[in-house]
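Exam revision sheet. Question 4 asks you to relate a sequence to its structure. Input first:
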Amino acid sequence: MARATITRSTASLASVELATQAANSADDMQFQNNGSQLLYVDNGSGSAVNVTIPMAADKYGRTGQKVIAVPAGEQRFIGPFDPELYNQAGYVLVDFSVSADILVGVLSLQS
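Answer key, structure tokens:
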């Protein structure tokens, strides 16, 4: 299946209301990235969730991943994401170890 795309909210001087949606660990997720995005994870579950962000192959063909544990009942902003390291066809890919009671959003610091 295709990855679900996370809706992006753009910050401004007039403030921003961050749009969130349920995490999808079955299909995994993605968001468009120009290097000024932050991923928001709100873990409303009773256990930690691992957020895994695969890295794009660098100029030497190396790949890897960044794993961030978000403890139960806590929230995290993750990023920003350097496009050279994280973009895969213009998107940052995001995988969740679980998705029950997890909300996600993307905050763009620039349009």
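Marking note for examiners. The mean pLDDT is 93.
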